[in-house]
Design brief:
The structure is a homodimer of 230-residue chains. Chain A is built from 11 helices and 3 strands; from the N terminus they run ααααααααααβββα. Chain A is mainly alpha-helical and 230 residues long. Chains A, B: Its cofactor is Mg(2+).
């Protein structure tokens, strides 16, 4: 197994596989297996089959918990946006998994290492291997580092960002009035800054700033959520 | 909560919910919620969203484990056949869940209680509730009683039946020669019985009988699997 990958997983994600052969299998593309038949390797396709379902459940569970009042239809759309091929390919690249997959020469030369479908499968195969090795909780911890922060940052739906999350949290205890107030703006047109406060039932609960009114409101909501949690 | 449902779950499936409100929610259709707004109930749609993913993972895991040499493409097709609407509606009916769902009057009069989409959603919602209440292992135990035996009986793919399973098991330790031998047939044409033995590398490992050669072979394979396991 590539020592760089083992080191990276350990240092960045605190993951050490007890069954190293699973990790190896997750990073083995069928094109590599076909070119090295004498090694009798297994490719990552069956792990991808399993990992696909692991991801689906963990993302569903996260959305179910984090957005307790969002209706099913919206959750389903959001889930689909998160588990789609190009999203997962991005996650794989962000983890630099593309550097470690073993490809056959043909696949390598035709640019397989940057192909979204291949990277998406790799990400799912890794999750499948992680699930077998460390259970649902282990796979969940990994997604907490890589996927979930993107969801709450609104990467998949602007409706699921900090503002929506804050609304969710506050409305759990009944109807409330949430208001974003622009307090100040300054600087030249090309580099303007906006300051915003968020109020709940006329009480200030957070503040933030940003390069647009929208970003300032997001920052204020994030600030309110943070205060609310601590 | 309907006492009949509680009793049935306990006696037939050894399931007792610690959070009874989850079970209640799983058996509450949106049409019932809409007709009883003053009760401020929650319908089962969000639980269905979650349960759908629980089912997907548990079925995937089962297939991954039970068929260690079946390629990903075949597993994916089989999974799709198992989790499709009409299959899940049948499972819901088999558990008599249709008797217990709370429907609005309109939905009831238009035959909602027998509608496959509604029953499918109900089955998934129940699984979602069971997962929250008793974790993945609890949901898995339920599927072990209701869904998995159908898979190994070949209900979703004749290729995944006892004969295929036996082949899977035997081939794990290398190439083997499996042979089904018709030993005897008797009885009148309209009620004929066939006796079959299954041999592995010329050693008898199972026997069975049935109303056709095919059924007799399935019975012999099931017998061999049983002997192999004990």
């Amino acid at each position: 197994m590539d020592q760089g990958l083992l080191k990276k997983l350990k240092e960045e994600y605190r993951i050490t596989f007890s069954k190293g052969e699973l990790l190896e299998q997750a990073f083995t593309h069928s094109s590599y297996v076909n070119e090295h038949r004498y090694l009798q390797l297994s490719d990552n396709e069956r792990l991808e089959f399993l990992g696909d379902a692991v991801l689906e459940l963990l993302v569903s569970q996260f959305l179910y918990r984090e957005y307790p009042t969002v209706p099913e239809g919206k959750l389903t759309k959001l889930r689909a946006a998160i588990v789609r091929e190009d999203s997962l390919a991005k996650f794989a690249k962000e983890c630099h998994f593309d550097q470690y997959i073993r490809l056959g020469k043909g696949e390598e030369h035709s640019g397989g290492r940057t192909r979204p479908a291949l990277l998406c499968d790799l990400f799912e195969a890794f999750l499948g291997a992680l699930y077998i090795d460390q259970g649902l909780a282990g796979a969940d911890l990994f997604l907490e580092k890589i996927v979930f922060p993107k969801i709450t940052a609104g990467a998949f739906s602007h409706e699921m960002d900090h503002k929506t999350k804050l609304q969710e949290v506050l409305q759990q205890s009944g109807d409330v009035n949430i208001e974003y107030r622009l307090i100040k703006e300054e600087g030249p047109a090309h580099n303007r800054q906006f300051w915003t406060e968020v109020h709940c039932n006329d009480q200030k609960i957070g503040e933030g700033y940003g390069k647009s009114k929208k970003l300032a409101e997001q920052a204020a909501a994030a600030n309110a959520l943070e205060r609310n949690l601590h």
